[in-house]
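can u do me a favor
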């Protein structure tokens, strides 16, 4: 009964509510003029499909499975890519917090440092006027986790993945580091690895922050529309478009 309620409830809030409204318009138009009704039906079905976890998880999983986590760590530096931050928000030892993806990446880097003793380079700047500087926040949080200052490098200027790669390459060259272990979200790794390759670096990918489970199943809740699922679909499509643009350059 709980799952039935959850499924029905998904059509009360956006985007499910808008999908129902569009379906109603399709029925209304169908009785008057068929061609606009067919066009609207196709748009409605695309909107519905893109807002289901079944589609979102399938798309994101196809990206996440391209690079498995290595069993052994071989490198001389852990490079972590930012993924967004807030400014002025309260934290245990200051202000500003990393968003979910960036925080997961940072946690993975800290655990890898504990295992390997390798230095960490965090790459990411202040992307928007009201967002936090990712590398500066990451540095404070890494220090708060007990990682020595001598083992922390920051690149706090980059605004996108391409700049992550270019500016990081410059810092690594200055410190004579040549074997970076790249830590970023699993869905982001295919595009990030390409950007670092274009910047002249051969990285060891270490994906983290997985959004989809290893083995996907199909059940009723996977077919209910949600804003979160639509966001996952959009994230996957953005990555695929970015990869395509890189390969066409």
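np, heres the sequence
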């Amino acid at each position: 009964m709980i799952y039935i309620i959850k499924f029905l409830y998904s059509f009360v809030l956006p985007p499910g509510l808008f999908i129902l409204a569009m379906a109603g318009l399709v029925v209304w138009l169908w009785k008057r003029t068929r061609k606009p009704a067919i066009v609207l039906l196709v748009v409605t079905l695309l909107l519905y499909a893109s807002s289901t976890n079944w589609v979102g998880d399938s798309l994101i999983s196809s990206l996440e499975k391209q690079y498995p986590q290595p069993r052994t760590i071989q490198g001389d530096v852990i490079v972590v890519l930012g993924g967004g931050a807030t400014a002025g928000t309260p934290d245990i030892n200051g202000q500003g917090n990393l968003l979910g993806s960036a925080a997961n990446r940072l946690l993975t880097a800290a655990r890898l440092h504990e295992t390997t003793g390798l230095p960490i380079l965090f790459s990411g700047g202040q992307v928007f006027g009201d967002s936090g500087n990712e590398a500066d926040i990451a540095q404070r949080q890494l220090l708060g986790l007990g990682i020595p200052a001598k083992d922390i490098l920051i690149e706090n200027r980059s605004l996108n993945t391409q700049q992550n790669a270019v500016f990081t390459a410059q810092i690594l060259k200055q410190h004579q580091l040549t074997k970076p272990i790249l830590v970023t979200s699993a869905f982001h790794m295919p595009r990030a690895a390409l950007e670092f390759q274009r910047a002249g670096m051969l990285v060891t990918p270490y994906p983290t922050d997985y959004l989809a489970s290893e083995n996907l199943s199909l059940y009723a809740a996977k077919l209910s529309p949600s804003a979160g699922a639509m966001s996952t679909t959009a994230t996957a499509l953005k990555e695929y478009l970015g990869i395509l643009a890189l390969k066409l350059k």
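The radius of gyration is 21 Å. hope that helps!!
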